[in-house]
Design brief:
By secondary structure, the chain is α/β, with parallel strands linked by helices. It is built from ten helices and eight strands. The protein has one domain: Rossmann fold. Helix content is about 50%, strand content about 15%. It is globular and about 50 Å long. The structure holds cytidine-5'-diphosphate. Cytidine-5'-diphosphate binds next to helix 2, helix 4 and helix 9.
Length: about 220
Amino acid sequence: MSLPPVIAIDGPTASGKGTVASLVAQKLGFHYLDSGALYRLVALASEQEGIDTQNASELGILVPKLMISFKNSQIFLNGADVTEAIRTESIGLRASAVAVHPEVRLALVDLQRSFRQFPGLVADGRDMASIIFPDAILKVFLTATAAARAERRYKQLIAKGISAKLEDLLQDLQARDARDSNRGTAPLVIAEGAKVLETSDLSIDQAVKTVLDWYQSAIA
Ligand code: CDP
C-alpha cells in the first residue's frame, strides 16, 4: 500500500506558513506537523539544562531524552505545557542556533516522519520538501518580503499581548533568514519541483485556496 500523501510547506520566518499549513490540514482533514515547534522545544530544553547552543554533541544527546507530545493545539515538554513558552522571539532565535547542528537535525528525523499518517499530512518548516519528505506530492515554498513578514510578526505578538518593536523584529528575522539560508546542513532552499507562493499581497484565505487548488491538480 502506498504511503499517506504529504504536502510540504517550507519558507522563511513569519511567512505565514504555519497559519496556511494548519488551515490546509484542517480543510483536508489531514494531520499537521509544525516542525519548527520541535526546534523551539530543543531551544527551550537546552536553555533549561544550561547547554550552550554551540555544544552540538550535548545537544545531540539531549534530543532523544526529551518527552515531547502534541495534544490538540497544546505542546508538552517533559510533562509541562510549553505552548506559549516556545513562541517568544528569543526562543525563535535560539531555535535557529540549535538547528544548524546535524546532530540535532538527525535526532529529529524519525519523530517528524512519524507524523505521516492517513489520510495525509501537511508539514511546515524549512526542509520538509528537501530532506524529511522528499516524495511529498506537493511542495510549496511560501514567502513574502521581509517588511511584510516583520509586520505580520509584529501584529501576531501584539495580539498576544507581547510587546515588540517593528524595527527589532525586522532585524531579528533578517538575522534568522541569513542563518537558516546559509547553514551547511538542510539550509532553507526552494526544493526542486517546489511551487513558490509569494504572499505579501495575498490574504490568508487566498493563500490557502491556492495551496488547495495546487493539491487538487497534483492528485488529479
Ligand atoms: O515561526 P517561525 O517561522 O519564525 O519559526 P519556526 O518555523 O517555529 O522555526 C524556528 C527555527 O527552527 C527556524 O528559524 C529554523 O532555524 C528552525 N527550523 C529548521 O531548521 N527546520 C525546520 N524544519 C523548522 C524550523
